[in-house]
Amino acid sequence: MPYSRQGSVKLSGNVADADEASPEELATVDSAEYEAIVKAYTNKKGELSYELLNKDFIQFAKSSKIVADMVANQASVDEIRDYVLKVKLESLTGNKELTVAQPKRIVEMLDEVSPRYVFRELNDEIIRMLSR
Q1: DSSP β-bridge partners for residue 48
Q2: In 3D, which of 131, 127, 106, 130 has the Cα closest to residue 118?
Q3: I need a labelling partner for 119 at 20 to 30 A (CA). Which of 45, 62, 79, 103 fits?
């Protein structure tokens, strides 16, 4: 049967359900923590700059005595990265009581916007630090 005779397509279900975010996701996006990150790393064009973000986090990792101790003790890349992210996000946001899940969720949200992993440069630098 030709498509014109079949009539219009009938959709079942609610289309709005597919676009709704979970309360946790909404809380993270609307959070002061996420706003602080966006504000701190927005470039002159008004875009979130992953280059600025990585440079700042790498600079912190290189200057941190605790990170140097972690490298000396051969901590894993994930442990060092998680520490750097948590401490740097705490200092940016002023919230010293971030849970382990909050920085991870913020990174996941940044990854959704970025075409590649947001902290790839930071990971590469941590690997270089560990290989010395």
Answers
A1: 42
A2: 106
A3: 45
Coil/strand/helix, residue 45:
coil
Tens digit of pLDDT for each residue in 36-78? 888 899 988 988 888 999 999 999 999 999 999 999 999 999 9
CB 49 within 8 A of CB 108: no
Half-sphere exposure of 98 (CA within 13 A, CB side): 27
pTM above 0.85, yes or no: no
Q: Measured between alpha carbons, how far is 20 from 32 in angstroms, rounded to an integer? A: 21
- Cβ burial of 90 (10 Å; 0-12, 13-18, 19+) is middle
Is the separation of the CB atoms in 116 and 99 below 8 Å? no
